[in-house]
Design brief:
single chain, 143 residues, mainly alpha, 4 helices, 65% helix, globular
Length: 143
Amino acid sequence: MTDLVALREALAAEQAIVYGYGVVGAHLSGKYEQLAAARLVIHQNRRDQIASLITGLGAVPPPSQPAYKLPYPVTGAVTAKRLAAQLEVGAAGAAWDLAAATESQSSARDIAVDWLTDAAIATSGWDLEIPSLPGRPGATAAG
């Protein structure tokens, strides 16, 4: 896989995560709404960083889709928090893929490592048991 292909896949993941956080934030209040808003900004910034790397390679970043299919209906705070945690697990997977596909001293790898660390930490903010993150068999974000 080339860096460009890996970056396009990472961008697609971030675009979907940004969409998902828009849905999540609409169903929360208080500290969880604030957390969702903060995570949205982080993912928007990462999306823009990845798009800049694609542009730097002389390519045009693909646009986001107008909407994304969610894994289940988000109908309230419980399902919104569960979706947020799943978004972060998905972010960790995308970061892992980007790290594995890019050169060790590249800007893309730096973004991937930061992204993976950030996603692993962020999963615990939703106070849910999370399935294993990539690279840590049997581990959970809460444990």
